[in-house]
Amino acid sequence: MSKMTLGSYPHMLGFEQLERLLERTAKSSEGYPPFNIEQTSDHSYRITLAVAGFSEADLSITVEDRQLVIRGRQADDGADRVFLHRGIAARQFQRSFVLADGVEVGEAVMENGLLHVDLSISRPETVVQTIQIRRG
Question: Is 47 domain-assigned?
């Protein structure tokens, strides 16, 4: 049985880019850091990542090709330290979230080891367009 793609459905035209976004996001879905997504109103969401040990300078938030990308990279200051046990890893991460049309990224706030990123949704007006038929 062959894999069905969005492009193989005859009524879904122009969704190839969305399919690529979904595939790319699925590949980057490791489990670190853990996160929550909550709906804060009818038109807004909040993504919260557990980023204990990261400072604001260690984190970057970008929107790339309709994806919200959150990256973290800590400077490894362990060169002059001797650990008997190292259970808190200083590792880098990247989390990606696909954004639908009309989703805007608002502010980002660090609080008690949690990074909150607020999103809002603007609903476009429904537009009805009449196409004239001409005789060929």
Answer: yes
In this structure, is residue 129 part of a structural domain? no
Is the Cα dihedral 67, 24, 109, 39 positive or negative? positive
Rounded Cα distance between 28 and 70, Å, is: 12
| pTM, to two decimals | 0.72
Is 134 part of a structural domain of the chain?
no
**Residues linked to residue 97 through DSSP beta bridges, in sequence order:** 68
Domain CATH code at residue 85 = 2.60.40.790
Write out the E strands in 1-136: 35-41, 44-50, 59-64, 67-72, 93-98, 103-111, 114-121
List the structure tokens of 29.
């879905």
- Do the domain assignments include residue 23? no
Give the pLDDT confidence of 4-14 residue by residue, as tens digits: 666 667 767 77
